[in-house]
Amino acid sequence: MTIEITTYLLYLAISVALTIWVARTLHKNGRVFLVDVFHGNEALADSVNHLLVVGFYLINFGYVCMALKLGYDIASPKEGIEALSVKVGWVLIVLGGMHFFNLFVFSRMRRRKTVHGQRPPVGPDEFTPVHQEA
Amino acid sequence: MFYLTVLYDSDCGLCKRAHEWLAEQPKMVDLIFVPCASDEARKRYPQLNHELTKNDLTVIRDDGAVYFGPKAWLMVLWALSRYREWAYRLSTPELLPTTKRVVSAISQNRYQISRATGMAR
How far is CA A43 from the centre of its chain? Predict the structure, then answer.
């Protein structure tokens, strides 16, 4: 097996493992948020949670595939490790970005829910009788 | 609460523009617009001091609670789905004095602002 093939295989293995780990974390810890957002409707929360994770997987695996190609030859194991490091580094950054985007979506949904059905921000100055239509 | 009645100055370009903008916004509470001190307003609220409503925006809840000036602006903001958070943010004890100052300044200079921005008085 050449150094290039080894690098590629290592890259794929590490990226896939990282993606699965982050997706599982999101899936496990995002659920409680969604249950809250959907007023305790667990079936709906689980469904949305699953859909979010699927999207997460698609985008990340898509990125991992697109970024596989190195575009230059590797002469030594040292260069192979360096190339691997850069590639995995990018995957980590993309994963981090996606992760925060997901958190943003969760918190936004939650905030939208808490904003509903609240009392007026200020109290009235006075009361006036309202003319009732006959 | 089902709706808020907004008594606005139909002589002022800025107010009419604001009215048009508000009409398009998604709402959590319906807004009914009635020109201030009009026959319609006097009929709806026979005991309200209508001279006072000419000075600044007035909002009246369907149960008869009246909000004048900056409070009325906050109530309108509160009625809008997209801006309800802002109504709470602007009415915190830290921000309320500034909100009141800014809103009052805009209200008092509404004819000048309308003229300066090319919206007919």
Answer: 20
Hey, which residues does B9 pair with through a beta bridge? none
Answer yes or no: are the C-beta atoms of B31 and B24 closer than 8 Å: no
Q: Which residues of A touch B65 (CB under 8 A)?
A: 124, 126-127
Q: How many folded domains does chain A comprise? A: 1
Q: Residue A94: which domain range?
A: 3-115
Chain A residues in contact with B74 by the CB 8 A cut-off are: 121-122
| pLDDT tens digits, A87-134 | 889 888 988 898 888 888 877 777 666 655 678 888 888 888 887 654
Q: For the domain bounded by B3-116, which CATH number is listed?
A: 3.40.30
User: Can you tell me the distance from the alpha carbon of B17 to that of B12, in angstroms, rounded to the nearest whole number?
Assistant: 9
B44-65 pLDDT tens trace: 888 888 888 888 889 999 888 9
- Pairs of residues, one from chain A and one from chain B, whose beta carbons lie less than 8 Å apart: 57
Identify whether A120 is part of a domain. no
What is the ipTM, given to two decimal places? 0.72
Which residue of chain B comes nearest to A132, CA vs CA?
Answer: B44
Candidate from A111, A120, A129 with C-beta closest to B46: A129
* Three-state DSSP state, A50: helix
- Count of alpha carbons within 13 Å of B105, Cβ hemisphere only? 6
Give B85-116 pLDDT, tens digit per residue. Answer: 888 888 888 888 888 889 888 888 888 888 88
